[in-house]
Amino acid sequence: MTDAIKISKTISHALRHAPLEYNLHLDNEGWVSLASLLNALNDKGLPTTEEAIIEMLAKAEKKRFQILDGKIRAYYGHSIEEKIVKQASEPPEYLYHGTIRGYLESIKEKGLLSMDRQYVHLSIDERTAKIVGSRRAGELVIIKVKAKQAFNNQVLFYKEENGIWLSDSIPPIYLEC
């Protein structure tokens, strides 16, 4: 594993899953000072610079992090207890969720739930949903979400980068399985 990949994975772990393990304190939108993150990486034996992180993020195929005004945050994927505040947006007519057939009956019964994450992860198109869903072993199933209809009935959606949308739990009535 290259140093850049190791640093990227460590940043992801620190900002999405275990900030306290790195002595980081995220604000309610998930931001932490870049200087604090650099200190945390150095403390974990991963010396790097602000410039190296900026360059690594600029070269990354997927934009998972945002840097602004000397601070950094992960866009999505948080599993920490304190909920990251997002700005709701009106979604397109449909969004998509990739999963495996083994979860389908539960989804039909309970809807899409955030599980161990803070939000349900959705994709703007079926292609992206297939990529995301194929990370799990099993027969892939794509669920079509009636996003606009759900939004009009008070289910909140949040637009992120890379064609990713987040949402609160989505009842089964808005799912085409």
From TrEMBL:
Record has Transferase as a keyword: yes
One Gene Ontology molecular-function label: NAD+ poly-ADP-ribosyltransferase activity
Keyword field: NAD, Transferase
InterPro entries (UniProt xref): Ptrans_KptA/Tpt1, RNA_2'-PTrans_C, RNA_2'-PTrans_KptA, RNA_2'-PTrans_N
Keyword Repressor in record: no
Enzyme Commission (EC) number: 2.7.1.-
Family to which this protein belongs: Belongs to the KptA/TPT1 family.
Protein name from the UniProt record: Probable RNA 2'-phosphotransferase
Native source species: Filimonas effusa
Taxon lineage: Bacteria, Pseudomonadati, Bacteroidota, Chitinophagia, Chitinophagales
Gene: kptA
